[in-house]
Design a protein that fits this description.
By secondary structure, the protein is an alpha/beta fold. It folds into three domains: about 170 residues, Rossmann fold, CATH 3.40.50.970; about 170 residues, TPP-binding domain (Rossmann fold), CATH 3.40.50.1220; about 200 residues, Thiamin diphosphate (ThDP)-binding fold, Pyr/PP domains (Rossmann fold, 3-Layer(aba) Sandwich). The protein contains 21 helices and 20 strands. The strands form four sheets. Strands 3-2-4-5-7-6 form a six-stranded parallel β-sheet, sandwiched between helices. A six-stranded parallel β-sheet has the order 11-10-9-12-13-14, sandwiched between helices. A six-stranded parallel β-sheet has the order 16-15-17-18-20-19, sandwiched between helices. Helix 9 links the parallel strand 9 and strand 10. Helix 3 crosses helix 15, helix 9 runs parallel beside helix 11 and helix 13 crosses helix 14. The longest helix has 16 residues. The model has no long low-confidence stretch (mean pLDDT about 95).
Length: about 550
């Protein structure tokens, strides 16, 4: 309870800073090590979501960071709580997402004794987080929390870890609050924009790749206006498809797992690549094969908000230190060249994308996930949020769903399993008026499936679609490719997921034929409750373009 003498506990000071910095939501698993901070939230304006496991809580916070461009907030207890939360922290690092993880710590007088659940947070998180600190003095909370917000958000965004000694949070002091932080936009110089225009105008086969973070709806619109004037092909990076409306005349597809071979050929054949915001890491670069490392054959213009990323992997001909939002805003002033030599190539690239994403091929078994995803394009509102975890099931979603509205795709570029369900819970908390769907694999869902209870507790009518092939499909695919016929450690025996949903207080349905999905989805929508649609698929249908049998046969043939 707050005193009337101007003194505040460390926990109260901390919560007051979060409110000042605009925090609306926080996610946690409670722990005695930061109970004074929890007490500070009592009666505050922050909506606190209590979760069932710290990994789910940290993924929810990361999803909010993705959605808002402001740090997602997570509170966990010391030791095992902190180690569980590292999954979401790693996603934030690789996905360039602003996030702050507040971790309870042992009392200041107990450190260095390996006290109960004690952990050296700087040693543990130092290689993942942008900054790790421990607050010893409650009078420094305003200062260090402000720094945490600036650090997490600016440059290349990422996670920050703040350790909170238990006794520090209970100590009472008088200290002034800090003002709200500001997001710093780094803008390109006029000379850089002019040089970029000259390089593009001189190209024969230019191509733009949009990726990374620090985008916005206005930036997305500005990028598409640039593409309309310059008629240049637009490509999105891995799990950044919502940055460009896929029906835009310049859209050529995304660089993801299971990409269109014609798109890969176009990137390799381009003579100029304008990379905006992304790092072009292992997945979108297809194992660093699309651009040579360290000096690409293509003229590379690299725009990135983190100065340390420019020249880190690829040597650009023109490096521009700017945020995507500021950079694409500057493009509005550019007039297109008179001679657009690549116009026909852009039209062909868009036509290839439409063909690639329109007609799913036949697959073994009575369920075709591609056809289900295509049908959802008609059933979902244009602003529906689609969240996915990681696994081969997500290839169907990435290929056949069309993210028509900015801010509708939430998926881990880091490839972390278990993300889809927590992200859906977070998005429904953040945007209760939007339709929210989570696509999960069977192994993927079981990593954070307990968070379905969180959806029920907070009356969040998300729809979870579980694609069940009875195995860790991605690993089985690689296993059959490299060790054909020697199956080990990839088979799963799964529960009845529809019954699982009902046990928690939600609704559940089982789909064993493609034709049965529409009715199950409509019923889930109309229920007004959290729902699980359990889709049983043939294990042979491993990707939209191949089967396990084909992979196995190819591997055996290659092995003689």
């Amino acid at each position: 309870m707050r005193a009337g003498d101007g003194l505040r506990t460390g926990g109260e000071i901390l919560v007051d800073q979060l409110v000042i910095h605009g925090v609306r939501h926080a996610f946690c698993v409670p722990g005695e090590s930061y109970i004074a901070a929890l007490d500070g939230m009592y009666g505050s304006s922050i909506e606190l979501t209590v979760c069932r496991q710290e990994g789910g809580a940290s993924m929810m916070a990361e999803a909010v960071g993705k959605a808002t461009g402001r740090p997602g907030i997570c509170f966990v207890t010391r030791g095992p709580g902190a180690t569980n939360a590292s999954a979401g922290l790693h996603i934030a690092r690789q996905d360039s997402t602003p996030m702050i993880l507040f971790v309870g710590q042992v009392g200041r007088d107990m450190r260095e004794r390996e006290a109960f659940q004690e952990l050296d947070y700087r040693a543990m998180f130092g290689s993942i987080a942008k900054w790790v600190t421990e607050i010893d003095d409650p009078s420094r909370i305003p200062e260090l929390v402000s720094r945490a917000f600036y650090t997490a958000t600016n440059g290349r965004p990422g996670p920050v870890v703040v350790a909170l000694p238990e006794d520090m949070l209970s100590e009472r002091v008088v200290v002034a609050d800090m003002p709200a932080f500001d997001v710093v936009e780094t803008s390109p110089g006029a000379a850089e924009i002019d040089r970029m225009r000259q390089l593009v105008a001189a190209a024969e086969r230019p191509l733009v790749i949009a990726g990374g973070s620090r985008w916005s709806q206005s930036a997305s619109a500005a990028l598409m206006r640039f593409a309309e004037r310059f008629e240049v092909p637009l490509v999105t990076s891995f799990r950044r498809s919502h940055v460009v409306d896929p029906l835009h005349a310049s859209y050529a597809g995304d660089l993801s797992s299971g990409p269109n071979p014609k798109l890969l050929a176009r990137v390799k054949a381009a003579d100029l690549v304008l990379l905006i915001g992304g790092r072009l890491g292992e997945w979108p670069s297809q194992g660093y094969t699309l651009l040579d490392v360290p000096v690409p054959k293509q003229t590379l213009i690299h725009v990135h908000p983190g100065i340390e990323e420019l020249g880190r992997v690829y040597r650009p001909q023109l490096a521009i230190h700017a945020t995507p939002t500021a950079f694409v805003a500057a493009l509005d002033q550019l007039a297109a060249p008179n001679d657009i030599r690549w116009r026909a190539e852009t039209k062909a690239a868009h036509a290839d994308y439409l063909a690639w994403s329109e007609s799913p091929t036949a697959v073994p078994g009575p369920v075709n996930i591609g056809e289900i995803v295509v049908s959802l394009r008609k059933a979902l509102p244009i602003d529906a949020v689609v969240c996915t975890g990681a696994g081969n099931f997500s290839i169907w979603v990435q290929r056949f769903h069309r993210y028509r509205h900015y801010g509708t795709q939430y998926a881990p570029a880091s490839g972390s399993m278990g993300y889809g369900l927590p992200a859906a819970v977070a998005m429904k908390r953040l945007m209760p008026e939007r339709t929210v769907v989570a696509f999960c694999g069977d192994g993927d869902f079981m990593m954070t499936g307990q968070e379905f209870a969180t959806a029920v507790q907070y009356d969040l009518p998300i729809i979870v679609i579980i694609v069940d092939n009875g195995m860790y499909g991605t690993i089985r695919m690689h296993q059959e490719r490299h060790h054909p016929g020697r199956v080990i450690a990839t088979t799963l025996r799964n529960p009845d997921f529809a019954a699982y949903a009902r046990a928690f207080g939600g609704v559940g349905a089982t789909v064993e034929k493609t034709a049965d999905f529409a009715a199950a989805f409509t019923s889930a929508q109309q229920s007004g409750k959290p729902a699980i649609i359990h889709i049983k698929v043939d294990s042979e249908a491993i990707t939209p373009t191949t089967t396990l049998a084909a992979i196995r046969k190819q591997a055996q043939t290659a092995g003689g």
